Amino acid sequence: MSPDTHDETTATSRCPFAIQDAHRAILESGTVGSFDLFGIKHWLVAAAEDVKLVTNDPRFSSAAPSEMLPDRRPGWFSGMDLPEHSRYRQKIAGDFTLRAARKQEDFVVEAADSCLDDIEVAGPGTDLIPGYAKRLPSLVINALYGLTLEEGEVLEARMRGITGSVDLDSVKTLTDDFFAHALELVRAKRDEQGDDLLHRLASTSDGEISLSDDEATGVFATLLFAGHDSVQQMVGYSLYALLSHPEQQAALRARPELIDNAVEEMLRFLPVNQMGVPRVCVGDIDLQGVRISAGDNVIPLYSTANRDAAVFPDPDAFDVTRPPEGNFAFGHGIHKCPGQHVARLLIKVACLRLFERFPDIRLTGDVPMNEGLGLFSPAELRVTWGTE
């Protein structure tokens, strides 16, 4: 995204594995950039240390009033600071531990194989994005929340409408509709028995943190918006990275024990999450020689920070043998994505199962990129295998 315009870099002029030129310029300049989003000025921070500061320093608030998000909803904990934020994170903490993610692994493998069965039936030339990169996370996320296929599809469609909007008024209207629908689901779960995350959010069992209907809806919506679409895009992008870097795919085949390193490297290297959620500066601050005033919006550039040579040597190289270093794919600080372990598991299983089932799978044709406001990923990933 250019600092001076709403227009996104076109897919044809940008390497599919490169960060935006304007964001790179900010990183290399060692300063802070700015641009208008929906007519509102935002500061952009790109260096890893600056991103850490903005996402972990109380002088940059997630709860302060913002022109971008004027209505703070109950339970929307991504728009909260400590200590309020902790109450809602504690409610969901047990569902997003590394141990909880590992317990899902058998189900994720089964879901991946089911998707791949259908891809094999469809035959060479099929598109991996709808049938695998999107479908697999949807199956797993629906199971995690206790959603039926229909419930999950309706929520996905409503989220796509919001993220595809081009003006702030449409975003607000569609968001209101989404929350109204999510509230209906929460209220329905209040009267049902279940051991999934959405039932637990709606639960008022003794000894647990009890949430109102509106609070439970806000937590549910926060989790969906933070993880659903971005995980789908990350799975597709990871498959693209390995399919288009045969030497890295070969290294992983030769040493499958590198898979955890490979997942961390893909999270670092692939510029899916280009921008973080804006913070609001609560007092005048000088950062890299720029005065940021109280009330200003500040956006951390996560994918750009992942290319900071001060932290990641040779940052533009994709190397699955690279020792893992803390990356910013899931953000930083108290708002770091709670679903990070589930996302890692999905990427790991999706890649391993695809290449185990189709050892000679390869790309066929061009790969168009889907570039939205904050996310970047392949829009289509057609593949072939066998002798064709």
Report on the structure:
It comes from Streptomyces kanamyceticus. InterPro entries: Cyt_P450, Cyt_P450_B, Cyt_P450_CS, Cyt_P450_sf. GO terms for molecular function: heme binding; iron ion binding; monooxygenase activity; oxidoreductase activity, acting on paired donors, with incorporation or reduction of molecular oxygen. Pfam families: p450. Belongs to the cytochrome P450 family. The protein has 388 residues and is an alpha+beta fold. It has one domain: Cytochrome P450 (Cytochrome p450, Orthogonal Bundle). Helix content is 48%, strand content 9%. The protein is built from 14 helices and eleven strands. The chain has helices at 21-29, 48-56, 84-92, 98-103, 105-122, 128-145, 149-163, 168-190, 197-202, 213-244, 246-254, 259-269, 302-305, 340-357; strands spanning 33-37, 40-45, 60-61, 279-281, 285-287, 290-292, 297-300, 362-363, 369-371, 376-378, 383-384. It has a five-stranded mixed sheet with strand order 1-2-7-4-3. The chain has a two-stranded antiparallel ribbon with strand order 5-6. The chain is globular, with a radius of gyration of 21 Å. The two termini are 39 Å apart.
